[in-house]
Structures are given as structure tokens and as C-alpha cells.
Amino acid sequence: MNTFWILLAAEWRHFRAAKGLVLLCSLLLLTGLYGIYYGATEVGRQRQHLAALPELTRRNVAELQVKFPDSTDAGDIGYYHSTYAVNPPDPWAALSLGLRDVNPYYMKLRLLGLHNQLYATDNTNPLKVLSGNFDLAFVLVYLFPLLIIALCFNLLSAEREEGILTLLLAQPVGAGVVVGAKLAFRVGLVLGLAALLSAVGMLWARVPPDGRVTVWLGLTALYCLFWFGVALVVTALQRTSAFNAVTLLGVWLLLVVLVPSLLNLWVAAARPVPQGIELTIKQREEIHAGWDRPKQQTMQRFFALHPEWRDTSTIRERFAWRWYYAFQHLGDVAVAPQAAAYAQGLQQRYQLVEQLNLLSPAISVQSSLNALAATDLPTHLKFQRSAVAYHDTLRAFYYPYLFRKAAFHHADYAKEPMHRFSSQPELPTAFRGLGKLLLSVALVFALGFAGLRLRPINPR
């Protein structure tokens, strides 16, 4: 045990003397702090946008109160009045932004056809979407393996190439103790850096101190240990430092870049999904055709879906708001099967990736961190379903005014239903990610130790 601690102290002195490694760790620390800052700033920007929405709604109501008298047709209000479905960010979203940079976190809704509003998003710079957001999860998943490679590519090869390993193994110390001390120092250094950044990020984002803290730290530690295991496997081959560096970088490129890209292409081909714009176009065509259909035909189709309004008076005038909103709703009904298939296809893609992400621990840990932060695809689909349900409550609120020809008063604005949605972490996904990472870590360390046992360390 004393020999082990002596070797650890020697590794610490060697690390302090290696200015390049100290600089690399410092740069990664600064990069991680910037990732924390960026994530917190982006979430803060989203919260500011969401906080401004009630004021926009209030101004919209004030304008309508000026434009329309106290007793007016509810059809006018339904057409001009807008409200919002909101997906507020979880505090953990600052650490792992996930899909909040590509999917809308609020939706502006009116009483008109739903799907035209559901898939409408703000214009986004495609280059920004391609590169993604630089949050703490990005630093942990993509950059920490590079630090581990820089620390471990010459774990034993440097001493062998300098002729030091022969002298070291001539001492009363086993090769396993030497490898263990070198690996333990590097593991402690990297895990300490990851824990420090995670702690700073959690404090900055003010995340609640619940069980997710343990899961986050567990995922981070296992992911780092996986890459240390990969380095151990390459070290067991006992090749040169240059060979080790190229091999480890090739593994990083394979598991972090190539496999996720190829998996994405394969999943897209295996689970084709119609685009949201196709639903929008078809819905618009159905709605536009509603102007040319006989009003009685439109209302009969609508009453088949809502028989509670069948006893309302026949439409004889050229234009009636209840007829207008009826064929708006029929446009949604016409594309309902395609909309369900679209959401189901996205869910199936996600599930297929979850089944195959064992091929790349990078995908597994990224999806697990997103699941912890409630920024993954299932959370967005739940938000979409809540927006659909909210639009249904809006229709249920306005229909009595429209079909009973009741006047809409200024006081009725306050009675309009509000959207409520609170994202929840997908803990089962995170726990599955922990299990997959644990299996991967056990596999690579078993291969590494087996390689060292089957092929004893050659000092030359």
C-alpha cells in the first residue's frame, strides 16, 4: 500500500511538471464553465420570453376590448384573440438543453385549425441547429473523452520508450501496482474535474437537491470510467505512444461521431416519418375546400362529431362564425390519422435509438442526461399533446357562445381556460442509461485486465 501511494505522489509531481497537461485541464475547466454559463443564459432567455407572454395576452385582450364592444360576437374574439401553450424549462435544462433549441417551447394558439399552429416554429439559423448548443452535457460527452485520451495514451509506453519502465519494474513492485497507480491518479483527476463542473453547474442552475443529482453524477462517472477502460484495453496491446494515440482517437471518432451519424441515418430509413409541413399543407387544403362545400353538408359532418349542438338553428345567412369554425375543426379531423402517425413515428424512432444506443455510450449518456433534464423527445411530445388538449378546451369554451348565439362580454375574457403543463424527468430512461453504461464499463475493464494478464508487461 505504501508503494501504491508513493507511485501516486510521483504521478502528481509528473503531472505538475507536464505544463501541457496542466494547460489542457485548465482549458477544459474553462470550457466547462462556459458551457454552464451558456446553458444558464439560454434557459434564462427562454424564461424571459415565457414571462413576457402573459403581458402579450393582456395587451391583446385590451386591444380587443377597444375594437369590439362589451357585448359582441364570440366568433370575432375567437378569430383575433390569441393565447399560449407553454413548456417552462426545468432547472436541469440549463445543464443539458437537449431538444429545446430545435423544438418550440411555447405555441401561440387561436380558435382556428390546430395543426397549422402546432407545427409552426420560428425561423432558426440552420448552422446553429447543426452545431447544437454548447452546454455542460456537451462538454462531458464530447470533450472529456479527449482529455482522458490525452492523459492515458502514453500510460506505459512513455516509460518504455524512455527506458524508465525497465528500472521501475526492477524494483520490488508489481506491474499491476504500477498500472493501477497511474490509472487511479488519472481517474481521480478527471472525476474530480467532472464533479467540480457538475457541482458548479447545479449551484448555478439552482437545481433541486433530489435524486437526480446522484443519477447525474453516476452517469458522468461511469461514462468517464468507460473511456478509461478503453484506454486500458489499448494500453494492454503494449504498442507505441503514437499507435495508442491514433487508436484512441479513432475509437473516439467511431463512438462519438460515426456511430451516432450512421445510427441516425439507419433509424430515419427504418422508421420513415411524414414531415409536419405535409400535415399543415393537407389541413390547409381541407380548410380551403370548406368554403366551397354546402354549409349543410359541413354542419352535418360536424354534428356527427358533436351531436350536442345538432339542435341549433339552421344556417341561412351567407357567413356564420359557427360554420367557419366547424370546417376549421373538420380540417383538423381530416389530418388526425396522419398527425397520430407522425407522433407515433417520432416515438418509435426514439425507442429504436434507445434499443441500439448500447453501440455508442455517447448516445446513451446524452439521451440519459436529456431525460434527466426533461429536454428529450418524449417530453416534447407530451407538451404537444397538452397543447392539443388545451385547444380542445378552448373550443369547448367558445362553442356555447357560437352555437347558442350568446354575446361575449368583456368579463368573459377572465373565464377563458389557461394552459397548464409541467415537464417531468424521464427517470426510467436515465436508469436504463446507467445500466448500459455499467455494462459497458465492466466489459472494457474486463478486456483490459484480461489483456494485461494474458500478455505480461514487457519493459522493452
Give a structural overview.
With 460 residues, this protein is mainly alpha-helical. The chain has one domain (2-454). Helices cover 71% and strands 3% of the residues. The protein has a two-stranded antiparallel sheet. The longest helix has 49 residues, at 19-67. The two termini are 26 Å apart.
Largest sheet: 2 strands, antiparallel
Quickly give the structural class.
Answer: mainly alpha
Overall pLDDT:
88
Beta-strand percentage range: under 5%
Shape descriptor reads elongated
Count of discrete structural domains: 1
| Helical percentage | over 70%
Strands in their spatial order, largest beta sheet: 1-4
Low-pLDDT ranges: 122-131
What's the number of helices?
A: 18
H-E order:
HHEHEEHHHHHHHHHHHHHHEH
Radius of gyration, in angstroms, nearest whole number: 30 Å
Q: Span between N and C termini?
A: 26 Å
Total E-strand runs: 4
Summarize the structure.
This protein has about 450 residues and is mostly helical.
Ordered list of secondary-structure elements with their pairings:
Elements: H1 2-17, H2 19-67, E1 72-73, H3 74-80, E2 83-86, E3 106-109, H4 115-118, H5 126-131, H6 136-152, H7 157-162, H8 164-169, H9 175-205, H10 211-236, H11 241-270, H12 276-290, H13 295-305, H14 321-334, H15 336-356, H16 361-372, H17 377-403, E4 407-408, H18 427-454
Antiparallel strand pairs: 1-4, 2-3
Helix pairs in contact: 1-9, 2-6, 2-9, 6-9, 6-10, 6-11, 6-16, 9-10, 10-11, 10-16, 10-18, 11-15, 12-14, 13-14, 16-18
